[in-house]
Amino acid sequence: MRYDGDDGVAGPFPTAFIRVISHPSVLLCAAMVPVLLWPFAPIMDAPNHLARIWLEAQSQLTGVQAQAYIVDWSNTSSNYMVDVLSSRFLYVGSLQMLLIIMLAVMIVGPAMGIMAIAGKLHGRISIFNCLVLTAVWGQSMASGFINYHISMAVAIWLFFAYYALLRDKGGLIPMVYRAVAILITYLFHPFGIILYAGLDFALLYGPKWRPTLRANITCLRQFSIAYLLPAAALLMYFLLHFQSNPIGKSSITYGDFISHLVSIGSPFFAYNEILEILLKVPVVVVLAYVVLRRQVLAHFGLLLVALGLGFGALLIPDMIGDGAWLTRRLPFMAFLTLFLALSPRGAERPVVKAVLALTILAHCAWIGWVWHVRSGDYEDLQVIANNLADNSKVIVGRNPGLARRWFEPGNYVHGPHYTRRHLPALLVPLAHAYIPTLFSIRGQQPLRIAPAFQHLSSPSSSIPTLDELQSHQNQDLADPYLAHWECDFDYLLVLEQDRLGRKRENFVSADLVKVTASERLYRLKPCRPAG
Asked: Measuring CA to CA, which residue among 455, 474, 456 is closest to residue 466?
């Protein structure tokens, strides 16, 4: 049996097929498949998060980690709710299960929340609302902004609870709820506040293009009063922790306008920009078609907020202190809001539903294939961990960057940034190792480096090249730990090996221990620094 479109012409897809592949639960399950099968995915900062949380979960650090790290929960000014909950989870669960939960929340959580709000707002969840699943695999995900993505999910679901239960209630309760929701969201990540406030303002403003003057005044009054308490509390908290937050430590950095403009598309491509853009072509064509035929209704308040977030992405700095890649944050929120704002008018054409659903499924399949290809990197690291003595100090280096075309998808994100450069952080839980490029920036985590290890730490997560190791300095970063690394560390781990049959390095002061497809481990010979 075939599904007849609203023009009476039989579509090319069977009715049952369209209903199954376009059902929201089927699309959400498809997005969960990569998470469940390949949790140690090529997500750049995820290993850092896991290593940090593992350290925080230890009742007492031992060996070199006890000498190097101090757990201090007053060391951070925000973003620590994920650490608190995750470190407690590790008392009863495994590191791999924790990663699966974190990935599910950061990837599926925001999309599911947007679809749930759409069901309440529009009376149904349309295929247009399901398009949010095309934005969750973007550059902010591949970069590993775990706290940020989880805060998006928290903000959306807290707003869903408000919209479902309290939107028609007056008095003090809705205002108190908003204040508490904002404060909770802040503890996950401050950017979640922007999304919560945007959704709140959009629905207070209303769906019409031109609300009455009285409606505008009422909207602004309710909005201002509701946010007065959390704004004052956050300002006080911010001032008390001024030296433990990015703005209190360094300057604001702006990039060029072209890079900001390109960042607008960051939610839609991560590992292979050309292929991922091609996957969006059917979406663009279909959206253009239904808009031109006026077959889509839009909530103007949400559209206004989406456009405002998009415009803000062109103005926001690239970096505020240690908060980097900020231009990749607002576009994601803008498209979350945009996909909530759109709703089809009347019956959806079957071909439209089928094309959009197949596009969503194809993107999930593409991500799953990339994660499958890169799953061997974690297996290689486990081999390295098995050949590494416990409680060792490990310095990580890399070969100079090679042309991206020689590497499988999943190696790079954001152009030259190597997605697996932080994978060695998992040696912290796997081999109780110490790595100098972790957890030395105050304010970003409840860990700090002990005074005795300050000279063996780095304020940057950048991985030095072999040339920089041999010259004992990084010209850009001036990392102190490079000065006498052959004598101060026990092992050298070299990344990006053997993909093109590169010549093996010969270190006079090191013995080769183990070679894998993507890494090479050397044991450094004992020595004394000159002088």
From this structure: 474
173 three-state secondary structure:
helix
- H-type helices in 189-212, by residue range? 191-205
Q: What pTM value is reported for the model? A: 0.89
Structure tokens given for 115: 């679809």
Kindly list the distances between the CA atom of residue 169 and the CA atoms of 172, 173, 174, 465, in Å, as whole numbers in the listed order: 9, 8, 7, 60
Parallel/antiparallel/unpaired status of strands 412-413 and 417-418: antiparallel
Q: Percent of the chain, pLDDT > 90?
A: 37
Return the SS3 of 440. coil
pLDDT of residue 250: 54
Separation between Cα atoms, residue 64 and residue 393, nearest integer Å = 8
Task: Show Cβ contacts of residue 450 under 8 Å, excluding neighbours closer than 6 positions.
Answer: 67, 68, 69, 70
Q: 496 near 463, Cβ under 8 Å?
A: no
Element (H, E) at 414: none
For the segment 333-376, what is each residue's pLDDT rounded down to a tens digit?
Answer: 999 999 999 877 654 778 888 888 999 999 999 999 999 999 88
Are the C-beta atoms of 371 and 507 separated by less than 8 Å?
no
